[in-house]
Amino acid sequence: MSFQVFGLPVSRGVAIGRAVLVASSRIDVAHYFIDAGRVDAEVSRLRAARDAVAGELSLLKRDLPVEAPAELSALLDVHLMLLHDDSLTGATKQWIVDRHYNAEWALSAQLEVLARQFDEMEDDYLRERKADLEQVVERLLRALARGPEAVLVPVATAGARDFAGEDPLVLVANDIAPADMLQFKGSVFTGFVTDVGGRTSHTAIVARSMDIPAVVGAREASRIIRQDDWLIIDGDNGIVIVDPSPIVLEEYRFRQRQSGLERERLSRLRHTPAVTLDGERVELLANIELPADAKAALEAGAVGVGLFRSEFLFMNREGNLPDEEEQFEAYRAAVEAMQGLPVTIRTVDIGADKPLERMSVHELRHEHALNPALGLRAIRWSLSEPAMFRQQLRAILRASAYGKVRLLIPMIAHVSEVRLTLDALARAKQQLDEAGRPYVDVEVGAMIEVPAAALMLPVFLRYFDFVSIGTNDLIQYTLAIDRADESVAHLYDPWHPAVLSLIGGTIAQARQLGKSVSVCGEMAGDPAFTEILLGMGLRSFSMHPAQIASIKQRVLRADTRKCGQQLEAVLRPDDGFVVAPGRQMPPDSQTGLPAATSML
Predict the structure, then answer these.
(1) What are the b/e assignments for 189-219, b being 16+ CB within 10 Å?
(2) What is the model's pTM?
């Protein structure tokens, strides 16, 4: 029977395809695609892991003491039987052969299928055997991790669709870690659905950067959607339709075609300068995660990179941080790819929803932190790791010899942090001078994403050349809301008067002091805010490349004089309520949350 799952719309458009579930596990499981040449080797890895576990279980059974209960021997027999059952290892092999999953992901996918079958069994004894199955799979996963080829191999992006078959695929998970999102980027998936997350969670941000539909905060989606279910992801309205009827399917396919035509029309604006009707030139920059993203930025018509999120170079490495040379090559590649256009590189912003697997000195155990968003993250972590920080600064400075580079410091809140940062930069320059390495003096900017930084702006601007407003965190910290927590997602409000006041004040003060200012958070790529930000005096927007065309269209149709008048009308100082164009009240006036599911 067809049914709907409701969540938060975070990336517009429609995706139709078969569900691929990434099951949660008590063991961290890497998810990546393998190319055709690795299929046999991956099957061999699985077989070797199965044989190793079989040997372990047989040895345990052989060495059982005579006085051991008979149930223990019988339990080991059950585990051996499950291990050799074709519905486990045989079917897992098919996930590898047919879908090109790595062995760990294939095991997790098959566990999800079998676990549902056990849950549906009427016999209590048989139903409880699911725990035995999970234990066997965990043994297999540990054996794979111990194997000689346990090193994570890169995602096979080129030719990925060759093994996806004719059916498009959509990813369904409880949550998707930034590291996994990095692996999935550019792969076969045409949409994402997650149980948790908010509009500015990392899954949402990366989905927008990939320009594919996504729904997050869908609660029980990964539990009620099955492997290979046909799904429609309505990224405009935050709806996932499971097993749609032919009529509904055809309606959404029509919407897909219309959306494709609209994107094609917008793409023609690529080379059109972003100038308002009253002659104000606006700078549209791109946010990127990896050097390879620079190509998409140029193709979208970006006039530079306003935010290079360097932390993605540190992720998905099992704790082995990139050294100076690797970072330098990555930064240089991005700078050269932009062909003389400016590249703003943000120092590593690790923490909160972007933890590393292992920190070099301060090991961050985010799962035990009371509130990781308020903990050791961004510049705080960098300053606590001076050797690592100077290493990154040297790499960025060296890249400046190959093009225009600007340095951006995240989460600055204290003058002491400013001084320590500038001291570290001076020390990095001294080390490069001593080593005879070429570099150029770069402009240094501060991210305004903490209310304290916005209120201290005149002081900070004595030290910095420019500022960039990170609206995602600024909203989170101003409203005391964890932006990754779907239970309070309805309170995450970019239209809040306090938020708009901080943004407007930051833009006005920076312009008054002759310092450049941009917005690099999600508001910059949201057409609903384009006129408001223009009215505040903003002339530099940085966003995901996929959003540039739609923002450029709004800029070309805007008159900044009228935008200023609109800004006054939007805020109602008398009652503190913001009237956002097209804004809708939440479905439930008590909680603001949509229902979890409803039957069609």
Answers:
(1) bbbbbbbbbbbbbbbbbbbbbbbbbbbbbbb
(2) 0.69
In tens, the pLDDT along 149-176 reads 443 333 333 333 434 456 888 989 887 7
Cα–chain center distance at 489:
17
Beta strands in 267-326 (DSSP E): 283-288, 305-309
The region that residue 60 occupies, defined by phi over 0 for left and psi between -120 and 50 for alpha, beta otherwise, is alpha
Q: Are 471 and 451 in contact (CB under 8 A)?
A: no
pLDDT digits (tens, 9 = 90+) for 394-446: 999 999 999 999 999 999 999 999 999 999 999 999 999 999 999 999 999 99
Q: Which domains does the chain have, with CATH numbers?
A: 3-23+157-264 (3.50.30.10), 36-146 (1.10.274.10), 277-578 (3.20.20.60)
Question: At residue 188, does pLDDT exceed 80?
Answer: no
Radius of gyration of the chain (CA): 26
Q: Is the dihedral of CA 84, 89, 91, 97 positive or negative?
A: negative
Cα dihedral 141→143→146→149 (10° resolution): -80
Per-residue pLDDT tens digits for 450-505: 999 999 999 999 999 999 999 999 999 999 988 767 677 778 899 999 999 999 99
In terms of DSSP H, where are the helices of 63-129?
Answer: 70-84, 91-94, 103-119, 124-127
516: number of Cβ within 10 Å: 16
Instruction: Say what the alpha-carbon torsion angle 21, 25, 28, 29 is, to the nearest 10 degrees.
Output: -40
pLDDT at 586: 40
Nearest 5 degrees, angle CA 543-CA 546-CA 548? 55
What pLDDT score was predicted for residue 72?
Answer: 63
Question: DSSP string spanning 134-200?
Answer: HHHHHHHHHHHHHSTT-SPPPP--TTGGGGS-SS-EEEEES---HHHHHHHTTSSEEEEEESS--TT
Q: Catalytic amino acids?
A: 202, 520
Which residues make beta-bridge pairs with 240?
A: 5, 233
Distance linking the first and last C-alpha atoms of the chain: 8
Half-sphere exposure of 214 (CA within 13 A, CB side): 30
Gap between the Cα atoms of 82 and 79, Å rounded: 5
Q: Is the pLDDT of residue 597 over 70?
A: no
Q: Which amino acid is at 536?
A: M
pLDDT of 572 above 70: no
Number of other residues whose CB lies within 10 A of the CB of residue 511: 15
- Whole-number average pLDDT of the chain: 83
User: The dihedral of CA 376, 351, 361, 27: what is its sign?
Assistant: positive
| Between 230 and 64, the higher pLDDT residue | 230
